[in-house]
Design a protein that fits this description.
two-stranded antiparallel ribbon; about 25% helix; mainly alpha
């Protein structure tokens, strides 16, 4: 949120306002959404991260997610 000033430790502890759904988890089970995300962001060219045929990200330490900072956002 605009008024948050969090440390790295706070972010890792998920003390931010909002939610962070990621492909493959219950709130966003469809991995094919990564295709759209990567295309919109031109992610492969800009980051060097590639998607495999099963949509795993390479290198394996790569992560992606959607961030919603609205106070009323919540998981279903």
């Amino acid at each position: 949120a605009a008024d948050e000033n969090l440390s790295i430790e706070d972010i890792i502890a998920e003390k931010y306002q909002g939610i962070r759904p990621a492909a493959g988890y219950p709130a966003q089970p469809d991995h094919t959404e990564k295709d759209t995300l990567f295309k919109l962001l031109d992610a492969e060219r800009l980051t060097g991260i590639q998607l495999t045929e099963s949509r795993a990200m390479m290198p394996g330490s790569s992560v992606s997610g959607l961030y919603f900072g609205h106070a009323d956002s919540h998981y279903f």
